[in-house]
Amino acid sequence: MSSRPFSNVRFSRRQAGKVAAGAALGSALVGGIPASRIFAQATPAAGEAELEIFSWWTTAGEAAGLDELFKAFSAANPGVKVVNAAVAGGAGSNAQVALQTRLSANQPPDSWQSHPGAELKARYVDPGYTEAIDDLYTEQKWDSAFPQGVIDLITVDGKKQLVPVGVHRGNVMFYNKEVLEKNGITVTDAWTMDDYFKAADTLKAAGVPALALGSKDTFAVVQLFENTLLAALGPDDFTKVWKGEVGWDDDRVTTAIQNLARYFDSVNSDHAALTWDGAADEVYAGKAAFTSMGDWLYGDATAKEKQDAIGWVNHPGTDGAFVAVIDGFTLPKGAPHPVNAKNWLIAVGSKEAQEAFAPHKGAIPARSDADASGFNDYMKWSAEAFGKDAVVPSLAHGSAASPQFQSAVNDAIVSFIVDLDVETFQQALVDAQSDEG
Length: 437
Ligand code: GAL
Hints:
Helices cover 44% and strands 12% of the residues. With 437 residues, it is of the alpha/beta class. Residues 1-5 and 12-39 have low confidence and may be disordered. Beta-D-galactopyranose binds next to strand 10.
């Protein structure tokens, strides 16, 4: 298998207590402060009229978060037209394909979204599509701004290749507070898979689907699987399985797949027609109790003003582990607007931009000097876990395994949703591993 840089590390975050001037979280980015005092710009973008940014951030909270990054860039680069080239599809299912077509035709945008780890290396760095940005790190003093664990993840073959903007937690169960209360269900971070299935039985008997799933987004089921696998293996062996040090034929993998099948006993009947955010709507509306999703869901709920309807807890059985889904932006080789591209990275790497972005996106800032005093309750919970938990990579979000392995699992999941055949799915995992060599 290709290199897997996460190694079950604990990332300590230095949380500055003081509010940065004019930068209360969630407020407009520069709060009246001249942008020139906030961002040290590369050089004026004379002659470069545009900046084209490629991502898959099109849902409510994603678009709101992206807009904060655009505002940060525009405040420092007035007059440059920002072209939003986002391609819809959760976890980049469509965007990544469209981007490969552009990159192979030598038509890159000015920057694109990537996760660190296997995705960054195999899709973009190894084929030579990116420029290393070590100089920018030195110039912007980013080496001390980001946690070392994050820096290690964005470094490929000794060179820095990504500016991280936010850190999502992938192993979260969100729930409708009223539905749980009505059914006498309480949850804590220490809950187990057995606790979940007991609650699911109660909910089923009450005629409420326990789990809202949006399996139209294949990644939503892959993510459900990886969270269930984490519960079965624990963080150490979960990390080892991506390195080929724990076999896919392990009995605990069988248990995880059996549990994956069991969720379907009490799931929304229209799951095949819904995307992840459609499934989230079911929970906000009280039509289902839980949904297992990364915390971009909290950004979605916030954008739809539904955040008060929901609570959160880690995916059952995964207390003490943090599945990190880190988003960042690259510097392309041959960017059409190279000065603007650099200025984009400078803007999104800034403390102010990350503080403005995070609450809309449901993330925590990637920078460790972000002002934690303005975090909402969800962000506080996530930041605390990120600081003390075992940090592990995500398969569904590109970091844990090669794109080939990920795509083999995606294909196997699509069949599994239909037949719930545990043995066939496990064999597909074993085969995918042996194909990796
Ligand atoms: C992830 C990405 C998140 C969020 C999610 C759903 O891959 O890192 O920022 O957008 O997909 O689309």
